[in-house]
Amino acid sequence: MAHTPIPDDPQGASGAQPHGQAPTALDAGPAVTVIDPEGRICLWSSEARALTGHPPSEVVGRDLSVLADRPDVDGRALVTELVRAGGGVRTDWLRCHDGTCRSVRWRALPVPLAAGTGLIAVACHHSQPLHWCDPSSVDLLLHSSPVGLAVLDTDLRYRFINGALADLNGLPIAAHLGRRILDVLDLPDPQAYEGMLRRVTDGGETIKNLHVAAIRPDGTPYAAVGTLFPLRSADGRVLGQAGVVHDLGGTRAELLDTARSRRRLELLNRISAGLSQELKLTSVASKLSAACTPAFARTVTVDLLASAVRPAPDTSAPPGIHRLSASAADGPAHPEGDLPRARAASPPVSECVRTAEVVTFHVDAAGDQPHRGVCVPLLAAGHVLGAITFSGPGDFDPDDVLTLREIAARTAMAVDNALLYRRERLATLTLQRQLLPARLPGIPWARSAHRHLPAQNGTLAGGDWYDVVQLPGGRVGMTVGDVMGHGLGAAAAMGRYRSSARALLAVGLEPGQLLTRLDALHGPDDGADNHLPATCVCAVYDGVTGDLGLALAGHPPPLLIRPDGSADTLTADPGPPVGMGLDHTYENVHRAVPSGSLLVLYTDGMIEDRGALFDLDQGIAMLRRAVHSTETPLDEVCDALMAVRPANSQDDATLFVTRLTRVRPAAS
Fold it and tell me: Following CA atoms 57, 60, 63, 67 in sequence, which dihedral angle do they give, to the nearest 10 degrees?
């Protein structure tokens, strides 16, 4: 396609104008085609066929170079050049269907398409006047029209939309192009609306005077009336559809009421689903805020009464509240630190929690538009737990207030459940701390350090324990265990297992004998109200000989890291967890330990990955690689091992590291 001046005799210059074709081309109107950013023809009008003789089936989807009179034309490069230049009028030679060439004048206009910026090309025979259908005038009409205009393809995706309709939908033009209309519009009955769109595209039907209501992304509803009609090719095929849409304003109140009611119902359903399983107080506030803003309110704040967390005597001062802001959801996971510092409640919140009634108030906000706030009490089982404050521009109407009450009722239930869960978790942690050793014995030839990390994802604390007992004859006994379960029952069972293991160590039992006896003491018939099995590792080290006795009951094997840097997994027949009543006899193995070695005992929370990104052997290997020297201070060793623990582990993690040396003979 070579750009050339207009010749005096275009037919002579072309060399071979077929007899009978020129009158058809001259009599036809301007030819229109759409070219995508890659230079492919994606729309071919009947006038374009009349001008060139090419049917749509031969050119649609092909590169623009199919029309060129020379082989070196690159459609994509030409589109890029014209888009950069802003279009313009050109004179070129087009290759027609019969192989001849024709001189045409054409105007290219950049147009936003789903795949980027393409071109609308309007062409006519050089002897036809181009000004009577000036594409720039068409462009002004499309983009300046106060009536909404859109073009959809057969997949109901936007291919063109003007500014008036984009503004009506509350989204920019770019947010429409390439997206399905039902993904853009929030409609009361999307299935019925899609059925009407399909009648146009699939059946070629024209639908006039269509009334519809939709919801903008900011939550405001609107009503519109429009006409949908099919877009056909020259051979009659439906290539898509167009819509002409006019804003009805507030003249169709029933449509707007339907849209508002649907939005409120969807909001309540979304809140109920999001909060039904939530047991963390700050996450309740975070999810509530995400569901309600910005469509229903500008800001949402949840204030939890301090007295609902920790009962306190009534005073005349403003009540203390914990502000459960969305940002607080990223705070510490420990129950003792999961709430922000208590502060005095604002006057509207104070009045709301005192009267248990809805309180409205004025909000200072930048700009001329007034803002209003509404405080709604959080009521659960007749008790006020706090309040939710909603704010936004304008007033909340009576229907809005009813919706706010429903939101508060669902939130209060979630807050009450989270408070109960928090109290149980705190009680479990407190009991667990009381049952674990207050401090480790100072044994010069068996120095120890430990770490205990409760589950960080909101799970109730489990039944992990660790213990060390100095024994006669230069020996030391160590146990680490994990009760199968969480909560107060698991903590109580942990206390029974730990005290029994400590007593059995004191009487001098070998590790295998100890686990066999521990299993018999805590079987299903031990009389405990809440019977729970447990995994356990028991080790007895002789500081005189360097011998280490070991037995496992369904527990991960310990690591032994030698002074030369080598490391081994100390394997033994693991046997079943203790407390299952299987009358199992546990194996007792012995290993020689070089002086200065590190013995690492741990629970499965140190190596378990609930995301299944790696197996237990890989988790153990990660622990092994985390320790680079046995001479590193024990606290630093513990920190290095905790650092490689899987981030998504959902269980307690207990770590017990001991540096095993030799008993020094007493000075004579």
Answer: 70
CB 633 within 8 A of CB 592: no
Judge contact between 539 and 549, C-beta under 8 A: yes
Give the model confidence (pLDDT) of 558-569 as tens digits.
999 999 989 999
Phi, psi at 235, each rounded to 5° = -90, 10
Q: In what order do the strands lie in the sheet with 148-153?
A: 158-161, 148-153, 238-249, 221-232, 207-215
Token digits of residue 496 = 């029974």
Whole-number Å distance between alpha carbons of 365 and 393: 9
Q: Output phi, psi for 494, to 5 deg.
A: -60, -45
Directed axis angle between helix 511-521 and helix 488-506, to 10°? 130
Closest CA to 2 of 80, 84, 95, 87: 95
- φ, ψ dihedrals at 658, nearest 5°: -130, 130
Residue 68 phi/psi, 5-degree rounding, is -80, 155
Among the ranges given (317-321, 330-334, 460-464, 607-611), the one the predictor scored with the smallest mean pLDDT: 330-334
Nearest to 513 by CA among 498, 497, 524, 501: 501
Per-residue model confidence as pLDDT tens digits over 210-238: 888 787 877 677 888 888 999 888 788 89
Inter-residue long-range contacts of 83-86, CB under 8 Å, 24+ positions, other chains counted: 83/37, 83/110, 83/117, 83/118, 83/119, 86/110
The CB density around residue 174, as the number of other CB atoms within 10 Å, is: 12
Other beta carbons within 10 Å of 290: 13
Reference 498, options 480, 484, 520, 521; nearest CA is: 480
Token pair of 374 as six digits: 């509404």
Tokens of 666: 């007493």
Higher local confidence (pLDDT), 551 or 312? 551
